[in-house]
Amino acid sequence: MSVTVESPQQSKPQRHKVTGDVHLLLRRGNEVLFGQRKNTGFEDGAWHLPSGHLEADESVIDALVREAEEEIGVVIAPADVAFSHIMHNASSGGRMAFFFTVRTWQDEPTNMEPDKCGGLEWFAPDALPEHMIGYCREAMQHITESKPFSIYGW
Question: 143: domain CATH number?
C-alpha cells in the first residue's frame, strides 16, 4: 500500500502578489488637479488623478514625488506629502492604491506627457467630471468623507 503525502508547499494557498500605485491629489484651494487619459488603451477620455506605479526599491512617497515631476512637472518636497487614503483594488489581480494630498509644490502644473494626457483641469471634489475611472471616483468619495481605507471590486 502506498501513501501519498502532500508537501507543505502543495497544501498552502498561493501568496497574493500586489501592484502598488500612487495617486496625487494636488490641491489648489478646494480644487484637485486631474488629467484626461489619451492613447493609453485603458479608459481613454476619462479624467484621472496624476498617478503611477511603484517601482522596485522605491518608497510610496518617492514614487509620488517622481510621478508628479514626470507627469505634471511639479517639484514636491517629501515633507509636504500627506496620506489621504489606501484602497485595495481587485483590478489586474490586486492593487494597493495609495492616495496622497499635496498643497505646496514648486513650478506650475504642465502636461509633460501630451502623448498620454489630453489636458489638465482643476475640479472641486463635489463637482467631479462625468467620465472618471470607477475606483478613482470611489476613492475621492472616501477621501471627502475622511475614510482612510477601502476595498474595491472584491
Answer: 3.90.79.10
Instruction: Kindly report the number of other CB atoms within 10 A of residue 113's CB atom.
Output: 15
Name the amino acid, one letter, at 108: E
pLDDT tens figures, 23-76: 999 999 999 999 999 999 999 999 999 999 999 999 999 999 999 999 999 999
Asked whether residue 107 is domain-assigned, the answer is yes
Distance CA 149, CA 154 (A): 14
- Rounded to an integer, what distance in angstroms lies between the CA atom of residue 58 and that of residue 60? 7
Grid cell locating 103:
498643497
Q: Residues with Cβ < 8 Å from 22, sequence gap 6 or more?
A: 51, 52, 53, 54, 60, 63, 64, 67, 97, 98, 100
Q: How many domains does the chain have?
A: 1
Give domain status of residue 4, yes or no: no
| Contact yes or no for 109/26 (Cβ under 8 A) | yes
- Whether 38 is covered by a domain: the verdict is yes
pTM exceeding the 0.85 threshold for the entire prediction: yes
Looking at the domain assignment, is residue 9 inside a domain? no
> Could you tell me where the beta strands, DSSP code E, fall in the chain?
19-28, 31-37, 47-48, 51-53, 81-89, 95-102, 117-123, 149-152
Joined grid coordinates for residue 57:
526599491
